Amino acid sequence: VSTAAIPPQTAPAGEIERYTFRERVMHWLTGLTYLYCLATGLAFYSPHLYWLAFVFGGGPTSRFWHPILGVVFVMGTLWMQNLWRRDMEITETDRRWLDRVENYVTNRDELLPPQERFNAGQKLFYWLMFYGALLLLFSGFFMWIPEYIPRQAAWIRPFMVLIHEIAALATIGGFIIHVYMGVFFVPGSMQAITTGWVSRAWAKMHHRLWYIRATGGQSAGK
Amino acid sequence: MASETLQIKAISAHPGPVPGRDASRDYDVCKLIDVTTCIGCKACEVACLEWNGYPFRETVFDNTYQTMPDLAWNYYNLIRFNEHVADDGTFSWLMRKDQCMHCADPGCLRACPADGAIVQYSNGIVDFQQENCIGCQYCLTGCPFNIPKFNKETKKVHKCTLCSDRVSAGLEPACIKACPTGCLHFGSKDDMKELAQTRVEQLHDHTSHKNAGVYDPSGVGGTHVIYVLHDIQHPELYGGLPKDPQVPWMVRIWKGPLKWIGNLAMAVGIVGVATHYIRYGPKNVVEEDQKKEEPK
Predict the structure, then answer these.
(1) Which of B149, B253, B277 is closest, CB to CB, to A184?
(2) For a disulfide at A176, which of A92, B89, B244, B269, Cβ 3.0-4.6 Å?
(3) B275 phi-psi bin (left φ>0, alpha ψ -120 to 50, beta other)
(4) For the stretch B130-165, what's the b/e string if a residue is b when 16 or more beta carbons lie within 10 angstroms of its beta carbon?
């Protein structure tokens, strides 16, 4: 089925739209810029990963683009905040879901409370990346232009590097789980974020409350 | 250095001693700066520029005898000037030749992420290799002496090389060669420490500088540029020479434990999700397939 030819609002059989075109562009803008910053950042982080800098055009080139694409990443994150802020608010249901998160991890989803458009795990990942991005931007700004930091305030340089590194490691932890879940653990989510469509069964299983809302209350099937 | 075998020992029909003989030996080298005999003439600044082929920079006059406020990427060597009034009312002009200290434990080298951008020779010289430099300036972050300077156009960092090119050819650094008062000395670290100590004792015995001492800070493992100061208790009077320089502890954490903890955590994360997949597999939507859309 060629989804590209399908006009909006016309869903493929049995599918509903999970992410709009705008949301998908936003996701991949942040995703790919993050990936670039991750790879080049790891090159600067560890001598054993310095080869990654050569993959992206060499050390000086990586050093040049890392902060610029980092700013693009944060701008994408702010765009995301604009679109998804409300969807990402953590609710009482999320707390109950988190109390039983081990059922999610072990694939006993039927024991979990139904979830809205995003489940509590996605929301936690979202906020981790959001605040991580702000911290990375703040500390990265000083690392971008350390030559302007006066000697009296020289401690700012290593301090910001430390913050940048800790924030980066925190987001990497979330990122590993995010990629694992998107690519391997939750079949259908990769299709959702690339084409926008998910099957109704997928929506019902993973985000039942959102499914009810999105289909106008025809919850029990049609 | 490696070119030790090419060091000239004798020259035919040469009047006077062999230039540079014994200046470079196979063990560590050291520059001794006796600030008590520095007259602030700036001959070392000029010699440094000439040897390294840099044009003279614009000077900045701020009512002192200092050429400009700070070192620059093409100005490795600056006489810092301070008018100091001591507690007893005595007045002095403190001049200190400021440049890379060539630490035995160099913070710049610790902090640098680029393979081969900073090397430390076995003779103690710490040298930047601009062709490998990526311009991140982590070296500025690691340096307790605020020495490395960034060239905004080439995006490379520069600093005093201790004339590694001259030293490798058996010559003394250009600044040493130019100094007219003999306040600069160059030789092995042991010899320079001994010479410095002799000068300190001389100051104790024959002058009022009873606090004179040798500045060879142990916090960075000692340096290959050492000073004789009138007042070893207050090195910061000499244009901000730190009293107890250290590689910043945050750099040590960042380059030490945080590195392997982070690497371990990332490896555990990747192995963890792979193991999870093998154990639990994907979250398939099997119960409510499209075909079973009728209410159960």
Answers:
(1) B277
(2) B269
(3) alpha
(4) eebbbbbbbbbbbbbbbbbbbbeeebbbbbbbbbbe
CA atoms of B111 and B103, how far apart (whole Å): 14
The span from the CA of B101 to the CA of B222, in Å, is 9
| Residue that the structure tokens 């154990």 belong to | B279
Whole-structure pTM value:
0.86
Yes or no: say if B78 and B99 are a contact pair by the CB < 8 Å rule. Answer: yes
Task: For chain A, say whether B277 makes contact (Cβ under 8 Å).
Answer: yes
CB atoms within 10 A of CB B76: 27
Q: Of the candidates A106, A158, A177, which has its C-beta nearest B273's C-beta?
A: A177
Angle subtended at Cα A136 by Cα A130 and Cα A138, rounded to the nearest 5 degrees: 105
Its ipTM equals 0.86
Chain B residue numbers touching A62 (CB-CB < 8 A): 134
Residue in chain B closest to A62 (alpha carbons) equals B134
Distance CA B168, CA B25 (A): 9
> pLDDT tens across A152-169, in order?
899 999 999 999 999 999
Asked if A165 and B263 count as a contact pair (C-beta separation under 8 A), the reply is: no
Q: Which of B262, B284, B288 sits opposite A204 (nearest CB)?
A: B288
